[in-house]
Amino acid sequence: MSVKDAVTDRFHEICKERNIKINELANLAGVTPSTVYSMMDKNRREISIITIKKLCDGLDMTLGEFFSAPVFDNLEQEIK
Question: If one looks up domain 3-72 in CATH, what number appears?
Fold first, then answer.
C-alpha cells in the first residue's frame, strides 16, 4: 500500500468511526468539499501535508494521533 492510499484509508476509517461524511469533514476542517474529494481520488497520487493537517485540526486530533495507526506500519517503498 502507498502512503497516499494509507492516508485516505485512515480518513475513511475515522469518518466511519465518527459517523461523519466527507462533506462534513471538509466543513469541520474549513476546506472545500472538492479539496477532500480530490484528495480521496484513487487516481490522484500526491497529497498535501497541509491538507492532512487541516483535516486533522477539523477532527480535533494531532498529526501524531493520525499517523499512529497500524495502516502506516508496513507501507511499500516510495523510492522506485
Answer: 1.10.260.40
